[in-house]
Design goal:
With 436 residues, the protein is an alpha/beta fold. It has 2 domains: 328 residues, ANL, N-terminal domain (Rossmann fold, 3-Layer(aba) Sandwich); 103 residues, ANL, C-terminal domain (GMP Synthetase, Chain A, domain 3, 2-Layer Sandwich), CATH 3.30.300. Helices cover 31% and strands 24% of the residues. Strand 3, helix 6 and strand 4 form a beta-alpha-beta unit. Helix 5 crosses helix 6, helix 9 packs across helix 10 and helix 10 crosses helix 11. It starts with 7 loop residues before the first helix and ends in a 6-residue tail after the last strand. Bound molecules: 5'-O-[hydroxy(phenylacetyl)phosphoryl]adenosine (DLL). The site of 5'-O-[hydroxy(phenylacetyl)phosphoryl]adenosine has 22 residues, from helix 6, strand 7, strand 8 and strand 12.
């Protein structure tokens, strides 16, 4: 049993109490949406549902879904749940194509969001004695602002570094004895690599924990970061549409992320049919906000593929846990008819002793899909004997084939030749999309 709770009364409430709370909040949230967001009202009317039909959380499935496409169509104000004058902030997705999604917040929304992030920091062992270095981007991206708010609530000394300028990150980390690092896992790996290059050993820093999220990362990557920085690495999940980081967070068990179910109801659906799947099934995560004012979301299709579990957690929290998302359904590559998640290739490469510096290039030659994987060598794996390199390339190709069932072309590339990420890493180049 843990003592690391930020809001014990919610985090450890019984499932019956939680159900009653979720029911009461859902009824209120649906009414709020019906009265304030004509677009939602239209969707509900189309499905023949009125607020009277929603009497509790068991009625959630009666509501229509909402998708990223709806959010784009309603850009910028179409889903606003309150007068603009009540809003105090916006954030926006980092999407590179199409219209961005803009999320609005009242002060009350920000307060709840900060609480969710504070729960994550406390679950990672954070207290008011800690120095919390926030190296997620600050700005329209939600990572910096969310963890910053959480860190203030916990009372940590907060270093609002934003991402980038790795030399300065390291200087502040060492001089101010940062104990908790918050950034994307790919940036954490890069910081670890840079510390090593500067001659620091993992025990030279004061870090004890890291809170990493905003992109998929594997267990193998977790182990690599934990070793490089000498810390425990905790996962955190969220998306701009639901406020930002803090929808779910890991406790000391590190076996999945507790969903803050007093604020978000979670379902898993079959992404093709929309059918709600039983607990324990893998599918698309659908989230419903239960107490948002400015940007309420009913049954939002996240496109993230995961699985839920209500197994009692030794930490004492009663909230369901979601497994590390494998990636978004739209990140899944279909190569020669085989479904491939980039994270599967990452698992193989890290198991084979490589660092998470790789690139996946998909193309099409003579009407057949091609899969090329560029893998960066470390100084240690580098060899100028051609035979050795050929043998290594063949070994990696075989390992990937065993995982995926298709044979890639593997290319070993020089140390430091693949660009490092300070935010979300771009691992895949799909040249087939250019010809759509
Ligand atoms: O990435 C919010 C965030 C900031 C989460 C900092 C955690 C830490 P977006 O930019 O809107 O928001 O991207 C949301 O990122 O739908 C997932 O596909 C992915 N994602 C976020 N956290 C994780 C995670 C932020 N822990 C999208 N594991 C989501 C895997 C994640 N994927």
């Amino acid at each position: 049993m843990s003592n690391n709770y930020y809001q014990r009364e919610y985090e450890t409430m019984s499932r019956e109490e939680l159900k009653a709370l979720q029911s009461e909040r859902l009824v209120r949230q649906v009414r709020h949406v019906w009265e304030h967001v004509p677009y939602y009202r239209g969707l509900m009317e189309q499905k023949g549902v009125t607020p009277e039909d929603i009497r509790g959380i068991d009625d959630l499935h009666k509501l229509p879904f909402i998708s990223k496409e709806d959010l784009r169509l309603q850009y910028p104000y179409g889903l606003l749940g309150t007068d603009l004058k009540n809003c105090v902030r916006i954030h926006s997705t980092s999407g590179t194509t199409g219209r961005r999604v803009v999320a609005f917040y009242t002060q009350e929304d920000i307060d709840i969001w900060d609480d969710c992030c504070a729960r994550a920091i406390v679950a990672a062992g954070g207290t008011d004695e800690d120095v919390c270095q926030i190296a997620y981007g600050f700005g329209l991206f939600t990572g910096g602002a969310g963890l910053n708010g959480g860190s203030h609530k916990v009372g940590c000394l907060t270093l609002p570094m934003s991402s980038g300028n790795t030399d300065r990150q390291i200087q502040f980390m060492m001089d101010l004895k940062a104990t908790i690092l918050c950034c994307t896992p790919s940036y954490a790996a890069f910081i670890g690599e840079s510390l090593k290059e500067k001659g620091y050993k993992p025990e030279d820093n004061s870090l004890k924990a890291g809170i990493f999220g905003a992109e998929p990362w594997t267990e193998e990557m977790r182990r690599g970061i934990e070793e490089a920085l000498g810390i425990k690495a905790y996962d955190i999940y969220g998306l701009t549409e639901t406020s930002g980081p803090g929808v779910a967070f890991e406790c000391e068990e590190q076996t999945g992320m507790h969903i803050n179910e007093d604020h978000f109801a979670a379902e898993i659906i079959d992404p093709d049919t929309g059918e709600v799947l039983p607990l324990g099934a893998t599918g698309e995560l659908v989230l419903t906000s239960l107490d948002k004012e400015a940007f309420p979301l009913l049954r939002y299709r996240t496109r993230d593929i995961t699985m839920l579990s209500v197994e009692p957690c030794p930490c004492g929290r009663t909230f369901v846990k979601m497994k590390k998302p494998m990636g978004r359904s739209d990140d899944m590559l279909i190569i020669r008819g085989v479904n491939v998640f980039p994270s599967q290739i990452e698992t193989v490469l890290l198991n084979e002793g490589y660092a998470p510096n790789y690139q996946i290039i998909v193309g099409r030659e003579n009407n057949t899909d091609t899969l090329d994987v560029n893998v960066e060598m470390s100084e240690g794996t580098f060899s100028d004997v051609v035979k050795d390199m050929e043998r290594e390339t063949a070994r990696l190709a075989q390992a990937i084939k065993t995982m995926l069932g298709i044979t890639p072309r593997v290319h070993l590339v020089a140390p430091r030749s693949i660009a490092r990420s300070e935010g979300k890493a771009v691992r895949v180049i799909d040249n087939r999309k250019l010809h759509d």
